[in-house]
């Protein structure tokens, strides 16, 4: 009997050690944060925009790990979130625009020339048979099956109300804090119950009633709730996956009084002071979570992946001339130019070299296999074809580079009622330093060398006809491989040509 107990003890002990050897994983996702909206420079030098922001905890995370200077998401939110949760490229999952809170309601603004194709405007789904959704195996479901405590905190926006994935619990999260079908908060202010109007239950942030009427900012409330949930999990000895998905720094630009005045004192406009305070509040959240990890001796066995869901907002609700907020990058959110898709990305954790920089171009599609790789989930079965690639080789070697890797974007929709060339209605591809942009409305191709021209100011389409043809053919192959849907002409009902058919 004693021998049996000893054997059981060893077995239990071994299981305990195995459980502890699994790293914790945090995805820290920021909404609408531009590549420049931080005091961490992601270009070769600090810019005046970098100098405006104060993000000491992003600086701390950069010292603790690797900075990716060529990281990308999709041009708007839901496509990025679905790619992250499924590993699918946007052209394959066909959730090509942001999803409405109301089921069966596309979000495309009308256009005079084009109609959007049929797309999955109800978002993603863990179940088959839900109209206009992509049925896929979600990342948190696989992590939960691997023994992880899976925690969702903040913005979800995976699917419309009336479909399963409107509730993060349906896609494998064990606990959900404030995640719904809403794509932004009605208000960031606790004294307003996180609602713009008292009866706003559609956009009002849920699950935070304990903070109603209190002087607390939404970013802070979410952080406190996330840390409390992690503390509750500690006795279980289970590794955790925290998807910390902030509503900041999306509209509305409510005033975070903790940080606002310092930016006014620096001479910023009221709008830009509010925006900068939103960014700093987000950064404090990152620091609070890092402090929790260090205090509880969890930091050395925890990965943190910091990223934004699209480029920075750069239209009229920001101060100054439109599309200047992300310079030197061109345009902003909603665009297939660099300002709309290039995002800040930092990664720290076991075997990630400290204070390192990778110039490898990577995509939000890559997060799915990378996180599973971090968790030690070597074999898994998914309903979907996973387009992303595990980034571990780059995380363990800052000098490693793959110039054959292909990044693909597809946005056959009209995001909003603005009409800027390159915003909405387009497809794009990057391979090596070359980037091809296909403008759907005019059926024109633009070619850029990003190494020499990060601002996409010098279109080389005419100067490099051989390269243009090669890239157009490759983009066509990649779109067809993923069964990408193309918009149609209003006048004829015919689809626009593929890139290799442009004359």
From TrEMBL:
A molecular-function term among this protein's GO annotations: arylsulfatase activity
Organism superkingdom: Bacteria
Domain Sulfatase N-terminal: 23-377
Alphabetical UniProt keywords: Calcium, Hydrolase, Metal-binding, Signal
Cofactor(s) this protein cannot do without: Ca(2+)
InterPro entries in UniProt: Alkaline_phosphatase_core_sf, Sulfatase, Sulfatase_CS, Sulfatase_N
PANTHER family: ARYLSULFATASE FAMILY MEMBER (PTHR42693), ARYLSULFATASE G (PTHR42693:SF42)
Similarity section: Belongs to the sulfatase family.
Name of the protein described by the UniProt record: Sulfatase
Biological source species: Runella rosea
